[in-house]
Amino acid sequence: MGRKTLSIDKIVMELVFADDASTKKELSKKILGIAYKKGIYPSSIHELYMAAGRGEVCGFTVPAINLRSMSYDLARAIFRTALKNNSGAFIFEIAKSEMGYTSQPPAEFTGVILAAAVREGWNGAVFIQADHTQVNLKKFKEAPDKEMQALQDLIADAISYGFYNIDIDSSTLVDLSKKEIKKQQKDNYEVCAKLTQFIRRIEPKGVTVSVGGEIGEVGHTNSTPEDLRAFMEGYNERLRKGLAGISKISIQTGTSHGGVVKADGSIAEVKLDFDTLKTISGIAKKEFGIGGAVQHGASTLPEDMFHKFPEHDTLEVHLATGFQNMMFDSVHFPSELKNKIYEWLKTNAASEGKEGETDEQFFYKTRKKALGPFKKDIMGLSADVRDKIAFEIEKKFDFLFKQLDCVNNKDIVEKYVTLKRVIVRSRKDAKEVVHDGEGAD
After folding, report:
1. Whose CA is closest to 174, among 230, 218, 217?
2. What CA–CA distances, in Å, run from 84 to 81, 155, 415?
3. What's the CATH code of the domain at 412?
4. Ordered per-residue pLDDT tens for the chain, 441 residues
5. DSSP labels for 358-407?
6. How far is the C-alpha of 411 from the C-alpha of 218, rounded, in Å?
7. Structural domain of 155
8. Helix, strand counts (H, E) of the chain
9. Is residue 375 in a domain?
10. pTM for the whole structure
11. Is 372 part of a structural domain of the chain?
């Protein structure tokens, strides 16, 4: 192991273990500088998706992978998988809620991902995404301006750290009590348009941030072509003319986040409507010129389903809980630490327990909430232990990349995606950025 390898590993550990925000910001900035010198660029996938909307790109589904724990080790495994498969179109993401319960603010998440790219010898675009930038329905009803400001603050912070892909989830505002579909979607498309306009105001010069919308909240009623048309028509009416809009649309097809766990701890079977994915993707492209439909909550699906996503023209698929499960359930994950986590959950997540559920159901449902409080314990495991766990999960990454036909597309990504160096002078406000020339070191 060379000095440079030791150095990047050391910076990552300092970043993960740092308790103050200013230290995290400085270390993240340091890693970004190293990444640029290695030809590694945080990038937007917008132009690739718009090319898909024009029919110039097709045949593969982009995996968007949420890293909740062991993010450095698993990101390294993803880059190894991509290098082995000559893949270029894959996304690292973390949701608004996950940033909280995993204790991974944007500065840390970006730093860790870029460090993993450096460590594995990657070059080119790295897509980092704010998943489910979600509107809280209760807070929005009580104080809409305050909730919008909170979302704008989060988006500005994320963009300032290289999150050039933002998924807006205002589907929580869909009101199915109204008869007319466009009225059902009204608050959804209006908020999505407002946040899109905010993103366009603050995005770095030369970077068109990829923005995603959502028409059906995951775990609820399946989406329809009428939902899409109502949303897009209203969204386009509200969006200021001349601005780039969304590049993709998330829909509901029958899944739920994390899957539904049965009493014995196994995952219940899901009836996923692939025809809905194909139909809505087709309409999204033909009628609105965007890349297509996005599937959430897919990581716990049966393995024999994944090849169907590219077959049904799915643009992007989100994968999260399954990798968390593999970490916790690995034979290499120390039983003492797992027991310690479960004991903590009995006290600190007791309010989430439901009458009649088994321990397996309770722990499966709540253990993600322990990832923040036990982040240092998990990352404090020996490199050997973390490597063994990551190697197991890497096999799953490789399987998924192949099933999604997300192989041999590095050249396609390089054709459409612009690499742009962005130098951040101040982290306080995403507007306070200056920009160097394209491709500068």
Report:
1. 217
2. 5, 33, 20
3. 3.20.20.70
4. 455 556 999 999 999 999 999 999 999 999 999 999 999 999 999 999 999 999 999 999 999 999 999 999 999 999 999 999 999 999 999 999 999 999 999 999 999 999 999 999 999 999 999 999 999 999 999 999 999 999 999 999 999 999 999 999 999 999 999 999 999 999 999 999 999 999 999 999 999 999 999 997 654 578 999 999 999 999 999 999 999 999 999 998 875 544 444 455 544 455 688 999 999 999 999 999 999 999 988 877 889 999 999 999 999 999 999 999 999 999 999 999 999 999 999 999 999 999 889 999 999 999 999 999 999 999 999 999 999 999 999 999 999 999 999 999 999 999 999 999 997 654 444 443 333 323 322
5. -HHHHHHHHGGGGTTTTHHHHHTS-HHHHHHHHHHHHHHHHHHHHHTT--
6. 33
7. 3-335+383-435
8. 18, 11
9. no
10. 0.92
11. no
Q: What is the dihedral of CA 25, 28, 29, 33, to 10 degrees?
A: 180
Residue 277 lies inside a defined structural domain of this protein? yes
First to last CA, the chain: 25
- Beta-strand ranges (E) seen in 119-237 are 124-134, 165-169, 210-214
Residues 6+ apart with CB under 8 A from 142: none
Task: Confirm if 215 and 250 have CB atoms less than 8 A apart.
Answer: yes
What backbone phi and psi angles, to 5 degrees, belong to 272? -95, 130
Q: Which two tokens stand for residue 139?
A: 């807070």
Number of domains in the chain: 1
Specify the 3-state DSSP secondary structure of 283. helix
CA dist 293 and 284 (Å) reads: 7
| Residue type (1 letter), 91 | I
**CA nearest neighbour of 111 among 81, 75, 151:** 75
Q: Which residues contact 62 (CB under 8 A, 6 or more apart)?
A: 45, 89, 90, 91, 315, 316, 317, 404, 406
Q: Is residue 342 part of a domain?
A: no
Strands 91-95 and 124-134 come out as: parallel
Contact 3, 10 (CB under 8 A): no
How is residue 261 annotated by DSSP? B
Amino acid at 296: H
